[in-house]
Amino acid sequence: MQQISRMLMKLFQRARLEKPGQVDPRAAEFTFSLLIAMYDRSGTGFVKMRSAAAALIALSGDTLLAKYRAFFQFYAVPDGKVPLITRSALRSLLTDLNQIPAIVGESCTLSCVEIATHDCFHGVLNSAIVEEKFLSWLRSEPAVLLWLPTCYRLSATEMVSHQARCR
């Protein structure tokens, strides 16, 4: 937890320097509290760095494709020259990401994660998939992660301004 707290302090300190006046001074504290609420419900004092990174990626202002690629990088396992996502790694990713809507009472069951994993690996004979297959599956907007592109689209529209007058 101390590692995550220090990382968040550095992250938001850099953000404050890049965008003066746009970052709440308590952003690191609030984000840390959110991560604890999502990933340490039993009060063990331990949060997996990979889970915290997945949440930060998902909640970032980056593009969907950039987020999807980052998920792959964090959860893929090296297999020779090509990194691959295994079924268990995909389950871990989906379970970690599912904690975000769960914090507001909108989670799905473990069976949703299993169905999504089965769907992603449909027609795949190997025990793992390459990045392109993973990205293709995510672009199809699987139900278990439908909240992610929806939130992205909502945040993207916040910046839209039209130079038209209404009557």
Automatic annotation (TrEMBL):
EF-hand domain mapped to chain residues:
65-154
Could you state one GO biological process linked to this protein?
synaptic signaling
One matching Pfam family: EF-hand_3
Q: Name one GO cellular component term.
A: synapse
Where does the chain cross the membrane?
Answer: none
Which InterPro entries does the record match to this protein?
EF-hand-dom_pair, EF-hand_dom_typ2, KCMF1/Dystrophin
Q: Which PANTHER family match?
A: DYSTROTELIN, E3 UBIQUITIN-PROTEIN LIGASE KCMF1
> Which named protein is this?
DYTN protein
Origin organism is Sapayoa aenigma
The beginning of the lineage is: Eukaryota, Metazoa, Chordata, Craniata, Vertebrata
This protein's gene is called Dytn
